[in-house]
Amino acid sequence: MPALAAAFTPLRHRDFRLLWSGSLVSNVGTWMQRVAQGWLVLTLTGSPFWLGVDAFLGEAPFLAFSLFGGVLADRAERRRILLASQLVQMASALVLMTLIATGRITLGAILAVSVVVGLAQAFGGPAFQALVPMLVPPADLPRAILLNSIQFNFARVVGPAVGGLAFARFGAAGCMGLNGLSFLAVVAALAAIPRRPGTGSDGATVLEGLREGIGTVWRRPSLRGLVGLAFLGTFCSNPLLTFLPVFARDVFHAGAERYSVLLAAFGCGAVFGGLAVAGAARLPRRGLLSALGLVLYGVLMVAFALNREPILSLVLLVAAGACQMVVFSGFMTLVQTSVGDALRGRVVSIYSLAFRGGMPLGNLSAGTAAAAVGAPAVLVVLGGALAIAGGIVAHRRGRDGVASI
After folding, report:
1. Which structural domain range is residue 77 located in?
2. How far is CA 144 from CA 20, 21, 31, 92, 149, in A?
């Protein structure tokens, strides 16, 4: 099929192909660990509150350091920054494996490792996003961004499935160890990519460079709007994934295997959605499409929270995954193509701060509320809020799309 083949056009470029394939293997391992870690936290504590805390601590370092990561990505070699980030995350997975295998694992240790991993990602994330446009020509950039989202979500399909099997056979320690090994793939890929120096500091201090990036976003309404929607979108949407262990155990009365199936269904939908979007020659009104996707995601989130049929829950998660792909890949494409290379690391880091920052705050708030009223009720409220917000944006900006906010 020509449309499907067109979706993979960026893989013709060697360096992008290396980074993409290495990241795919690494992300499979990461999702294996997430299955094991989420179930381990729930087993140790029995409370959805601590699931929210763990997710919060894994994302919270973005609130403090990702903007500085963006400045560094514009000044230093992005490939080397990303390499250091991957090595730290690999070491963290192996530490968890050792603690579990020796019977010394505690909730505190899990939370501490989540902070370390989040800190590594605060610097690695902006470097990764800013490196991608250097590996493909501008015409292939939108599809390259989509392919990165596709490989991440394909890993979300494969990782939980493999992770569920590994958890049943080798326990949580096996999942952590396999994740640690998976980082070797992306480390090898980064080592094979030629050095690409940053643009330098031009004598400006770190704070001056940071101020320049923030000023660029602030002066452009389109970027301000995307940053705001990214924060709201992840604040409201991410608890759906965070609470999947609760639904697997308390709603469907199953174990870690059901959790992995639910997670894989969401990832499968995201892959299908990404392939459909990437295969399209052009997407008119990409911003408006993303806003409408927020509405549909909110509706699906409410439906999932109220549903008690296992098969229907999988269908709803597949559809939600496809919607999320359309929404956030559209946002990222608009951000990446709106600035030049000299500012890309900083602008992407500001967007990523909003995108990733919404996750820990949403998870912490949702986890606290779920401890009082239950996870389904929380998802109904958040899904409704997301649908209303997306509807307002789509109605007000229907002619010009989200890019004009």
Report:
1. 2-198+215-404
2. 9, 12, 22, 29, 9
